[in-house]
Amino acid sequence: AMSGLTSYQAIRGWFDAALADPAVQAIVLDIDSGGGEVSGCFDLVDYIAASRGKKTIVAVANEAAFSAAYAIASAADQIWLPRTAGVGSVGVIALHCDESGADKMAGRKVTAIYAGDRKNDFSQHEPLSREARAVLQAEVDRVYGIFAGTVARNRGLSVDQVMALEAGLRFGDTALEAGLADAVGTLEEVVADLAARGPKFNQLKEAAMAKKTNAAAPQPGAEAGGKKPEEQVEGMPPEKDKPAGAASGDGNGGGEGGDAGEENPDGTGTQQPEPMEAAAAITEACVAAGVPGVAATYMRQGLTIEQVKQRLGHADRIRRVVAAANRLCKAIPLSRADAFIQAGTPLEAVHAALWDDVLAADAKAPEISSHREEKRQPAAGASSWDKATALYQQKK
């Protein structure tokens, strides 16, 4: 890294050296950072988290562990922070600077010669196009799902709890209340407690284990048939370790509404995807359906990938129907399609809702002539969309 920055490769090198040194009994991550880049961050976080149990790992926000820095801190067994320190900012941001106005004022005209329609998408010498913005938003949403899933796994929280923070900052005791830290204390107090294996450290270690156990247990209001993907906690026994036929979730032997997941190799039940895998799958499905912006909403709602695919199943057809309704009535915005898709509205209900909107708009329209052609009534039993089509023919 340059200019005083610390690279992820350097952090891993120091961490490996501490792991390999027999004289080192515990590792303290002394963090004072507002964040960093996405590239390489989660690989390092996963590596540190996978090293739990080899040696005690404690992170100290001294005095800041935000965004990517907090992702690294979350991989430790415990997170401490002084009373004035802050943690959090579990979110993703991408910036585009449009310098075309400054170029014009300076008398510069930049011409891009390129091959591939998307090659010049993010040039600072041109305004950001609608298509380029959609591509970048989809990537931001995808990485946000990975980030939230990583923190949820490491801290024994659900993805809903992490996303509910809305990338906000937490300081001192409020960080403990949000589940983002374990204790208030300075770096010196942490080192002294580790050296003495003091009672506070042991107490916190037991509390951390209890928190993980509770996070893995069925939660009130959880969907029948098993835990949501975001409630899977690293370090807990996988589903295959349960007796065959053991109930999960509400204790009713599965029941309706749960998603099966993949069958374990030994045939003793099913296992749910890891939080990051589930988040990535949901985001990819939404991007493929052309509605990347709803991925975060689906994750907040705790939907499984199967439920998301079911909601997205009629996405293309819903868009075509809304586009047809827009041609009938300009008061119906094309954005209605995204709202229907996000809510999982059945296709027939979409038809009915749009038909009502078309009728309402038609009722408000003034009569142009007293000799208007008599309206043809749709056949009895016709579908709602057939009725809308008939109305369209009347208005032509």
Largest sheet: 6 strands, mixed
The class by helix and strand makeup works out as alpha/beta
Rg is 27 Å
The helicity comes to 40-55%
Strand fraction equals 5-15%
**End-to-end C-alpha gap:** 66 Å
Overall form:
globular
- Count of DSSP helices? 16
pLDDT average, as an integer?
A: 76
- Low-pLDDT regions: 215-270, 368-375
SSE order, one letter for each helix or strand: HEHEHEEHHHEHEHHEEHHHHHHH
List keywords for this structure.
16 helices, 8 strands, six-stranded mixed sheet
What would you note in describing this structure?
By secondary structure, the protein is of the alpha/beta class. 45% of the residues lie in helices and 9% in strands. The protein has 16 helices and eight strands. The protein has helices spanning 8-20, 41-50, 68-74, 100-105, 130-155, 159-163, 173-177, 187-196, 199-216, 275-288, 295-300, 305-312, 315-328, 336-343, 347-364, 384-395, and strands spanning 26-33, 56-66, 78-81, 86-88, 169-171, 183-184, 262-263, 270-271. Strands 1, 2, 3, 4, 5 and 6 form a six-stranded mixed β-sheet that branches. Strand 2 (56-66), helix 3 (68-74) and strand 3 (78-81) form a beta-alpha-beta unit.
Summarize the structure.
This protein is α/β, with parallel strands linked by helices. Helices cover 45% and strands 9% of the residues.
